[in-house]
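User: I'm designing a mutation panel for Membrane protein insertase YidC and want to avoid disrupting the core. Could you give me a predicted structure to guide residue selection? Please restate the sequence first so the numbering is unambiguous.

Assistant: Good idea. Sequence first, for numbering, then the predicted structure tokens:
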Amino acid sequence: MNQTRAFLIIAWLMVATLLWMEWGKERSAPPVVATQNAVGAVPSADQAGVPAVPMAPGTIPTPVSGPGPAAPVTVTTDVLRVALDGGEIGQADLLEHGRSNKDDSEPVRLFAQDPANYFVAQSGWVSNSGAAPSHEGGFALQAPQREFTLAPGQNELVVPFVWTGPNGVTIRRTYTFRRGDYAVQVRDEVINRGTAPWQGFVYRQLSRVPRALENAGPMSAAGYSFQGAAWYSAEDKYEKRDFEDFVEDGPLNKQVNGGWIAMLQHHFFAAWIPQSDATTTFSLATPTGGVGTEYLIRSLGPAVSVAPGASAATQARLWVGPKLIAGIQAQKVPGLERAVDFSSYGWLATLGDGLFWLLAKLHGLFGNWGWAIIGLVVVIKLILYPLSAAQYRSMAKLRKFQPRIAQLKERFGDDKQGFQVAMMDLYKKEKINPVGGCLPLLVQMPVFLALYWVLLESVELRHAPWIGWINDLTARDPFFVLPAINMALMWATQKLTPATGMDPMQQKMMQLMPLVFGVMFAFFPAGLVLYWVTNAGLGLLQQWWMVRRYAEPPAKPAASAAK
């Protein structure tokens, strides 16, 4: 396979992949779901022993003891600003991540109460042996102030709440916020001062409506990023379900030891992480409330049994923030790094993990993500050099015998089968491998696709500048400079590639490829186009060198043809 055909194959593979991705994006657009009851509403594998869990405002099945929701308190750390009322965190601003790359940009609001952006984290209790506080009310603030701010030199903030039931049972809930940490510690201590045993189940859930994409143009990065629920268990590992398939794929009722549940979106996510030794039940629901149809993922459990005069505690972490690899890994939670959804395919996600690791190391060396991408191309080129050298040797040998192949084609005319047999005999006699140039192509395609997802999902590159006009590597080139350079490099590569034996149709297709790729890359993230431009530039230099090194005069066909 010569360089031209290999180039055509990779071009059409990329076009087919992008068409498939565009179709998938349209297919997974946030759906409009009709009013319905909860899906997967059974809250536990043991249906008889667990009471119903409140689903949404106005649907509590049994009275809840205590007052209604308290007025929210505000908690501000160096990275978070949240509003919470004891049972619900209804607003969360990510102070180090602006909505745009302007200095005065408002921070990203991950949790919100307004109907168009509704997204909250909730936690409460249910009990068959007495009253219990739900996320909708019951907890009262146990502090004189309603604003908590992390002071300079202070490492953590503790926000205490308490619920007291009529049966002598008290639940003390504390939220702990730490400096530089997006994981909020939530601890519940149950104290039974009554005369009868009390058993309850803690539940923790994330509820939201799908948000409209801020950037929904062609090749929009946010449009291809997964949005929906995800969960992890030791048995089945990482699983996910987008909003469209919440109902269609059936209910979820999974008993899990440890694990986690999450709601994912482009660059950011929220996750409840129960204790690693806790037995919980994961479920999905689509309740209807004041904001319309919501999408909810819940963790129910563990069960807590408290004898009179005794106490027990359970705790969990709530991650509310960006998909920062280092911060996620610091949680030491199995599988949580999969929240950075590098691909729908496990093997491609594994490759993406490796590419990001290398990219992060290069960023530590250069201090700039753009130069890290260029360094990544250089490393990949060095690794693939033996394969590339074999490819160019194979192509050089094929070029040498192109005149003889052309003469065979002319001699056999319309006898295609005879031509194929004669050509294979020639390959065998001259020890030519006709697919010798394919292996580098097959290796580079997964690398390119995996890197696409890395650049798509990595919040570390969000709003990250390179040089001059490129001030966000995850957005398209604002002046289309990189796509234009890529067009020029592709044109130069074509001129350097001999077109011997190519039919007129192939020649026309090749002439259109620079324009097709230029238009397509105009909408790609600048970081990905930078990768491709660097790869094309180094490939052009490498091809120039290889052509000079391995070029041989074409074989003279006259003597062979006469035989």
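For picking mutation sites, this is relevant: Residues 66 and 138 are 5 Å apart (CA to CA). The first strand starts at residue 73 and ends at 76.
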